[in-house]
Amino acid sequence: MAKLNQKDQARRNQSQAISSYQVNRQSKGVCRETFNPAVNRIPGLYNVNCVLEVATLPGCDVMAYDHFNLTAPMRTQYLQSQFEALETLFKEDLRCEEFTEFGMPIQDCVRLVGRVINVSTEDATLNQDCVGLFNLGDDNGTNKYRVKLNLTEVRQYSVYEGEVVVAEGFNDSNSKFNVNRLHKLKVRPPTQLCDQ
């Protein structure tokens, strides 16, 4: 049998460590309905301990992530770290060093990066009149910024709430951002995403 080098041995140990993942609710409260109601389920199998097989891509780190017991600051910190990773990928795609901060009184063409949100005060669906961008401020996340987007000059676009995009355009005196172009992240192979 051939000897494994240190890197291969570490990967093997990691894959053995996470090959099975025990899910046990214990005293976490009532079971939450997380399944699609259209999917058929076998009755009588609720709150049963089960083993999930976890498959990983080579070279990717897997962290245990207990999403049922997160506090609001922990959720914000996690979302901000994901946002920063996407922001780095956008910088590579667009070959720029940084994006303009929200609310800066600059009259030149600028690029803003943020999550798409619905800025309507009513509980309406996302449409051309209520699309906005949201971004947390500095590292401690105390400042939150949002800006309404004017998409009349963009010929074709498709966005959804929560999507991270780069809007290129000009600031308006009416606290709107006139968008000339919307940039989305280029599709990458999964191995390149793990390297980031």
Automatic annotation (TrEMBL):
Biased segments, Basic and acidic residues type: 1-11
GO BP terms in the entry: DNA replication initiation
Record-annotated DNA polymerase alpha subunit B OB domain positions: 79-184
Matching entries from Pfam families are given as: OB_DPOA2
Region annotation Disordered: residue ranges?
1-21
Q: Subcellular localization, per the record?
A: Nucleus
What are the Polar residues biased-composition ranges?
Answer: 12-21
Give the keywords, sorted. Nucleus
* One GO CC term, this protein: alpha DNA polymerase:primase complex
Q: What is this protein called?
A: DNA polymerase alpha subunit B OB domain-containing protein
Question: In which organism is this protein found?
Answer: Favella ehrenbergii
